[in-house]
Amino acid sequence: MTITLIGDGVPSVPNYVRTGAALAREEVERAAELLRLAADVEWVSDLAGLYHERLSDLARIVTALGHRVAVAEAAVNTLARLS
Amino acid sequence: MSDFWVVGGIGGTTARLEDLDRAAAVLSSAAEVVRGVGVRARVLRHALVQTPLLPECGHERMLAIERVSWVDWGPGGATAIAWDIDDAASNLRQTVDLLEDAERQSMSLLEGLRRGWDKTVSLVEIGVWVPLKVVGAGVGFATDALDFTPLGWGGTGQVLDIVGGCADVINPDWTPNLAPLLYGDDLQFLLSIAADKLQPIIGGTAWLAERLGLEAPDGLIELLAADLAAVAIALDYILGNPRGLFVAPVASRRMVPPDGVVDVLGRLTGLSPTGADGPGAIAIERIEHADGNTAWIVEIPGTQDWSPDGSSNPIDVTSDLLLMATGVSDLTLAVQEAMRQAGIPEDEPVMIVGHSQGGIAAMALASDPGFATRFDVEAVVTAGAPAALFDPPDETSVLSIEHTSDTVPALDGKPNPDRRNWVTARRDLGASSDPLDRAADGDIVGRHELAGYLRTAERVDTSGDASIRAWFDEASPFFADEGSTSVRTVFEATRGTDRPIVASDVPAMVATS
Question: What residues of chain A lie within 8 A of the CB of B420, using their CB?
Answer without folding.
Answer: 42-43
